[in-house]
Amino acid sequence: MPSRCHSGNVPPLSQKIHIILDGAFYYRTELVKDIAVVLNIELHYLPPYSPNLNPAERLWKYMNEHVCNNHYLANPIVFHEEIHHFFNVMLKEKANELIYRLNDIFQILNPASSS
Q: 16, 37, 72, 115 — which has fewest CB within 10 A?
């Protein structure tokens, strides 16, 4: 283990911690990787652009579908009111649908046969 990462004051964790990171260059430096190893942290990097894996992007898309798509919003005040209404009223009403949309529900697909 590189001595520059561990001063001896912080013991490694007994259970591994998993951290999901975007692909920013500063998360991929050798220093970050070395510290993660010393502290028993496993780093997982998201693909370069993966909005389908980001819950905030999914929520934004869902909000956009219900507030902005196919709606004329006369001015910024109306836009603000509609977004406020979405988060304070509609979000509660559509909680079950939203939970399904924001969850990581993936399918394992069988490869196509060559016959």
A: 115
Specify if 6 maps to a domain: no
**Count of domains forming the chain:** 2
Phi, psi of 18 (to 5 degrees): -110, 125
Q: What is the pLDDT of residues 50-99, one digit of tens each?
A: 777 777 888 888 899 888 888 888 999 999 999 999 999 998 888 888 77
Tokens of 42: 């496993």
Structure tokens at 41: 């942290």
Q: What's this model's pTM, rounded to 2 decimal places?
A: 0.48
Distance CA 20, CA 44 (A): 5
Q: Residues 41, 60: one domain?
A: no
* 2 within some domain: no
pLDDT (0 to 100) of residue 55: 79
* Sign (positive or negative) of CA dihedral 56, 59, 65, 66: negative
Q: Domain boundary at 6, 30, 45, which?
A: 45
Nearest CA-CA partner of 3 in 42, 40, 22, 31: 31
